[in-house]
Design goal:
EC number: 1.17.4.1
Enzyme class: oxidoreductase
Oligomer: single chain
CATH class of the largest domain: Alpha Beta
Radius of gyration: 30 Å
Number of strands: 26
Helix content: 40-55%
Organism: Planomonospora alba
Protein name: Vitamin B12-dependent ribonucleotide reductase
Keywords: Cobalamin, Cobalt, Disulfide bond, DNA synthesis, Nucleotide-binding, Oxidoreductase
CATH architecture of the largest domain: Alpha-Beta Barrel
Number of domains: 3
């Protein structure tokens, strides 16, 4: 995209100016990029999933015809500015892109980035083309703020600093609040604060950092519930040699014990529940910052010293392995704390003369100086995969140049939440270019995510991206100057550049695809080192891998950041409302790449649509199963598969990686220890783990059992003296946040209704919801109240057969014919509902006593056969269907890659099943994620955070 790095041009006959000489790549001279795209008008109507009420409506919005409904809905609801229903409200993607790109272009001209006005126009057109074609996206704050009357905040990631003074601690509370209010997240290291084992100057004992975490957590929780753009996101880090490290490690695990105990006692501990606010430390991710010294002590089984904050002297020695075990145990129980490898992070630090890197942003991908920020942008990798399976290296280089130029320009006009952050960011100009859709790219090219071939492609792409970014940074330094802190850190910065280039030299390629990418990366790094030696660098940091939550949905990405595919089936929104379940569009492309004929591919896709996995798919060879392995489901990627992918790309990133290593529910504490240890050995900068369902349904702690035993002993000792008779009270057994359910549409005497029946995971009906008539009507209100009453009764242990016996045969209108073949006539709606519940949830013997039979059972009776035999055959069929399928033996660690080609993506759709877990049933195990605070829909993992596919809200950076 850049023909030369500098040029001269006369501007109005005045003195020549220096600047970038731009070159058109994607656009046509004399034609505006908007005019090359077919546009269409749509209506965006968002309804509340609970009651069907409309919570957002904007009609006649304009988007390119190839944008999905989901992407258009998210941009309309999230990024269009102006009050809905007023003339000031944006209604077209053109207006949004013009608003943002206009500021970038004008600022670039004002600060001398372009050689001529024509070059500025080319930059403007190329940027607009890339954005409307979903080739890349800036992070959310850019879309929220740029070109509006609000402060021009462009950064999503912030790192704060806290010193050992009350003034600094109170400033921390305030600064976090300002950042949360703007919809961004921040991280902080509390290790400078004296421990609770040290004395104050007044002679008293210090409170310790964990004590001050309570106040910050409460503040974050309050702002979260105050209507911010998204939930408060924060990271709290503590060094492993801090005397309060054990208390820090166990904070969230202890609180999870509280949550379980309170839930069992009947309190509302669901996310957003009225009682959850009584639990502490829930608004932050926690991470322990470990040193090489500590990790070596763990390996050798040595003791490790905890040091006073002011003097640095060792005040206590602990068993390193025992402390490491505590970290892994807490992570096993509640996914916190994560781990950050301090020496590795600082060994790759470009600015050590300014200060050490002590913390990260909430998702751990941005690691740099205290009181700094980073703005992000992510490239959609699948846009560079051609129909013949080749990766478009040339255009990937050009788009990376364009994005880095735009991101650096943004720092010139950006506003920041605090003066200190503004000063540091302007002086060091940290950028965070990354990518999304890696998992989809690998699948589409026939590569397993956990394979040498897949890792080689990922590493080569990452090396090329960072090499081009720093080469462009050196070019910009020659035009508008290096970052202010460069002179002080020049030798260190150049040393890190050589480390990146050296890692590129040792990269082992396997196929033509990654060889071509690697060859270009080598050229870019050579040019980068040459220009950097001459000009210096414009940016202290260039690249990282963010979770790409909301912007990934905006770009219609199948996978986020560096993540593999979550599952092989997804929900897709439809233009007229509603949604359908589809097989991921990259699967047909992958099958074509692997050599399957169209008829074979269609049969495999149909099987995946029905079963959610590829095991025993007709015609699919077992050696190809691994290509379709996902983060969850029947064939989930092994935990070390995630770690190895992170290790493959980490040497080519300025920052770190937002990614969670998924472990099955059956994983052990030893497994988590192994992941943490291997992450250190493989050179990662940070790592987080998540064991499925670790926050739901955990057993009582040993302490709880001991307390119960002591209580029983006391009662036994008192029994000879006082006879105590206790009358048992029923205990409410709440359903987990995610539960299997069935929705039945019925008609009784012409009246239509819907019934959703939810069960406990270990079977047994626990909840019934009924909907008839319009919301707000008397009948709807009565049905809601009746549903709540029945559901609470079921959860307190009232047997379903009791309700069935009371309500079956109850007579009132509407009554008559139904559309249910098992229940052709009903005396009333209640008669039908409880007959249907009995058929679905009661065993044959209990139903027979009540005179309730299915159509097949009645037919058997008429033939003189035993209806119980039908039931037995059905049970045997279900057992056979659910029997374990023999899995292939574990594949070898290394496997040769495959040739590159692809076919056009296809979509195979099936009718959407009932809400409440059909996708999870395909995945094979629960996707343990929170409900969206905006729309109530189940979120899905995106890096270390979560993203809502319904409205685009995220729990962290995007």
């Amino acid at each position: 995209m850049t023909e030369t790095v500098s040029g001269t041009a006369a501007r109005g006959g005045k003195r020549p100016r220096k600047g970038l000489k731009m070159k058109r790549v994607f656009t046509t001279p004399g034609v505006h990029p908007y005019d090359e795209v077919p546009w269409e008008r749509r209506d965006v109507v968002m309804t509340n999933w609970r009651d069907g009420s409309v919570n957002f409506e904007q009609r006649g919005v304009e988007f390119p015809a190839f944008w999905s409904v989901n992407a258009a809905n998210i941009v309309t609801t999230k990024y269009f500015r102006g009050a809905v229903g007023t003339p000031q409200r944006e209604w077209s993607l053109k207006q949004l892109v013009d608003r943002v790109v206009g500021v970038y272009t004008r600022t670039g001209v004002e600060h001398g980035y372009f050689a001529t006005d024509e070059d500025a126009e080319i930059f403007d057109h190329e940027l607009k083309h890339a954005l409307i074609h979903q080739v890349f996206s800036f992070n959310s704050p850019v879309w929220f703020n740029v070109g509006t009357a609000s402060p021009q905040q462009v950064s999503a990631c912030f790192i704060l600093a806290v010193d050992d003074t009350m003034e600094s601690i109170l400033d921390w509370y305030k600064e976090e609040g300002v950042i949360f209010k703007g919809g961004s997240g921040s991280g902080v290291n509390l290790s400078r604060i004296r421990s609770s084992k040290e004395l104050l100057s007044s002679g008293g004992t210090a409170s310790g950092p964990v004590s001050f975490m309570r106040g910050a957590d409460a503040s974050a929780g309050t702002i979260k519930s105050g209507g911010a753009t998204r939930r408060a996101a924060k990271m709290v880090v503590l060094d492993v040699d801090h005397p309060d490290i054990e208390e820090f490690i166990e904070t969230k695990a202890r609180e999870e014990d509280k949550i379980r105990a309170l839930r069992d006692a009947g309190f509302d501990m669901d996310l957003g529940g009225k009682d959850i606010v009584s639990v502490q430390y829930q608004n932050a991710n926690n991470s322990v910052r470990v040193s090489d010294e500590f990790m070596r002590a763990v390996e050798k089984g040595e003791r490790f010293g905890l040091r006073a904050r002011l003097s640095g002297e060792v005040i206590e020695e602990v068993d390193a392995r025992a402390l490491f075990r505590k970290m892994a145990t807490a992570a096993w129980e509640c996914a916190d704390p994560g781990i950050q490898y301090d020496d590795t992070i600082n060994d790759w630090h470009t600015c050590p003369e300014t200060g050490r890197i002590t913390a990260s942003n909430p998702c751990s991908e941005y690691v740099h100086l205290d009181n700094s920020s980073c703005n992000l942008a992510s490239i959609n990798l699948l846009k560079f995969l051609s129909d013949d399976g080749a990766f478009d290296v040339e255009n990937f280089v050009k788009i990376t140049e364009l994005i880095i130029t735009a991101m650096d320009i943004s720092i010139c006009f950006a506003d920041f939440p605090t003066e200190k952050i503004g000063e540091t960011t302007r002086a060091y100009r940290q950028l965070g270019i990354g990518y999304a859709n890696l998992g989809a790219l690998l699948m589409a090219t026939g590569h397993a995510y956990d394979s040498d071939g897949g890792r080689a492609i990922a590493a080569a792409i990452t090396s090329l991206m960072t090499g081009v970014s720093y080469r462009r940074s050196a070019e910009l330094a020659g035009i508008v100057g290096p970052y202010d802190g460069y002179a002080r850190n020049a030798e260190a910065h150049k040393r890190v550049m050589r480390k990146h280039a050296g890692a590129n030299d040792t990269l082992r390629t396997l196929e033509s695809m990654d060889r071509a990418i690697h060859a270009e990366a080598s050229k870019q790094w050579a040019e980068c080192l040459k220009l950097g030696e001459k000009n210096g660098y414009r940016n202290a940091q260039a690249s990282l891998l963010a979770p790409t939550g909301t912007i990934g949905l905006m770009m219609d990405c199948d996978t986020t950041g560096v993540e593999p595919d979550l599952s092989l089936v997804k929900f897709k929104k439809l233009v007229g409302g509603g949604s359908m379940q589809i097989v991921n569009q990259t699967i047909p492309r992958a099958l074509a790449r692997l050599g399957y004929q169209q008829e074979q591919a269609e049969a495999i896709v149909e099987y995946i649509a029905e079963h959610g996995h590829v095991v025993d798919a007709p015609g699919l060879r077992r050696e190809h199963y691994e290509v379709f392995d996902c983060a969850m489901g029947e064939r989930a990627i092994a935990p070390m598969g995630h770690v190895r992918m992170m290790a493959a790309v980490q040497p080519f990133l300025s920052g770190a990686i937002s990614k969670t290593v998924n472990l099955p529910e059956s994983a052990t504490i030893d497994d988590i220890e192994q992941v943490y240890l291997e992450g250190w050995k493989l050179g990662l900068k940070a790592l987080a783990v998540y064991r499925d369902n670790c926050k739901v349904g955990q057993p009582l702690s040993a302490g709880g059992k001991k307390a119960a035993e002591k209580s029983e002993e006391k009662a036994a000792a008192a029994e000879p003296e006082v006879k105590i008779v206790e009358i048992g009270r029923p205990t409410r057994r709440r359903l987990p946040n995610q539960r299997p359910s069935t929705t039945t549409r019925f008609t009784v005497g012409g009246a239509k209704g819907y019934m959703t029946a939810s069960s406990y995971p270990d079977d047994g009906l626990g909840e019934v919801f009924l909907k008839m008539s319009k919301q707000g009507s008397t009948l709807a209100g009565v049905m809601d109240a009746f549903s709540v009453a029945i559901s609470i009764g079921l959860q307190y242990g009232v047997p379903l057969e009791t309700y069935v016996s009371k309500f079956v045969n109850m007579r009132f209108d509407p009554a008559g014919m139904t559309d249910d073949p098992d229940i052709r006539m009903a005396a009333s709606v209640m008669d039908y509902i409880f007959r249907r519940l009995a058929l679905d949830h009661l065993p044959y013997e209990e139903r027979a006593a009540l005179g309730i039979f299915s159509a097949a059972e009645r037919a058997a009776q008429q033939r003189g056969e035993d209806p119980a035999a039908i039931q037995s055959e059905e049970v045997m069929a279900e057992l056979a269907a659910s029997a374990p399928i023999e899995r292939p033996k574990p594949r070898a660690e290394a496997e040769a890659g495959r040739e590159s080609e692809s076919a056009r993506p296809q979509e195979a759709a099936v009718q959407e099943p009932a809400r409440g877990g059909s996708l999870e049933s395909h995945q094979g195990r629960t996707a343990d994620a929170p409900l969206c605070m905006t729309c109530g829909t189940k979120m899905r993992p995106a890096g270390s955070c979560y993203v809502c596919e319904g409205c685009g809200s995220t729990s962290g950076c995007s």
